[in-house]
Amino acid sequence: MTSTAFTAVLARGVLPFEKGSSGGWSKFGVEEAIRLAIFMDLTAQGMLQAQASKLLRDEFDGLLDFLNADPAPPPGPVLFGEASFGKLGKGDAGNLQETTRAICAIAGTIDQAIARAQRGLKGRWELKGLTLVSASDSMGRILPRLTDADLLTLEAQKWAAFMRAPESKQSWRKGQ
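^ thats the sequence. predicted structure below, dont judge the formating
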């Protein structure tokens, strides 16, 4: 994201993280870079900026909790997004009920991610919409930029492993 685009997102009030007291750049570390990369991916998939920002503000910590919950989760990309489900209300064929659920998953398939989002829904809900991005790929795109700018820290390397950034994009691992 260019500084002009960042300033526009800041001016619209849709940063996917809290801006510091002196502006959007005052507290900008690896976590903020990851949130911004996922934000860009969600909006590239057609999600409105305000919706993507809210999803990340509300659910990013849930993603971290999910990743921390299982010390040995199955291999696969870290998926992040939201699914919209709908069903007809009882006795009222024209009354469509809808719910939107955040998706934080490590899954080999989209079906597994959708099944995780459906947990806890009672009754027969049908998938109405899905916006899902690979947070692993988002992290993978950040690493070369950090390396090129000589800003790759141990914290960034830990985030890359934690977010399961694809090996092919982890240029910092070459030569180790």
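Residues 168-176 have pLDDT under 50 and may be disordered.
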